[in-house]
Amino acid sequence: MSCLTTAGILIACKEAIGGIKALYLGNYATFANTATINGTTNLVTALATGSVYEFELPKHTGSFTEEAAISIENGTVYYTQTVVAMFHGMTAARSLELQNISKGRNVLFVQDNNDNIWMCGYKDGVEVTAFTTASGTAKGDMSGYTITFTGEEKDKAYLLDQDAGDTPFQDFATVTVVQATL
Description:
Elements: E1 20-27, H1 28-31, E2 36-37, E3 43-46, E4 50-56, E5 62-71, E6 76-88, H2 92-101, E7 105-112, E8 117-120, E9 126-134, E10 144-153, E11 158-160, E12 175-178
Parallel strand pairs: 3-11, 4-12
Antiparallel strand pairs: 1-4, 1-7, 2-3, 5-6, 6-10, 7-8, 7-9, 8-11, 9-10
């Protein structure tokens, strides 16, 4: 592995926007450590055969952050991937589904508002580290769920190699997207 700088970074055009619009949850046993990653571009070019479950997010209710933990003394680095999502409306079916998800380990695909899809938990998976149900206090308050997924990985989240404007996973014929129903 090379630690040498290979390129500088230019000031980019102001074309990106913040936030995330959807999550796709995949089974850890299916998707962890099985992707084909291009060694030059660091893009995911192929995924294992399996299903991912779509979780649509209302505007301005989700975020994806990735923070490096670097220890100069120990010579180590890893990345903490954190995804926070809110789901409006409390129902028995939603509550049960989120409760079941919080008991397992998964690979999480995050679609940002720029239509990039980031693969979180590729090696060690992501797990639910917080799950809140809230009715709110005032009539205008959110009534629903907030869930936090956290992963700690040796490498940063991988970006899926798909064409701009494509439907999520369109360039990955081995992946079946199970549309959101709850």
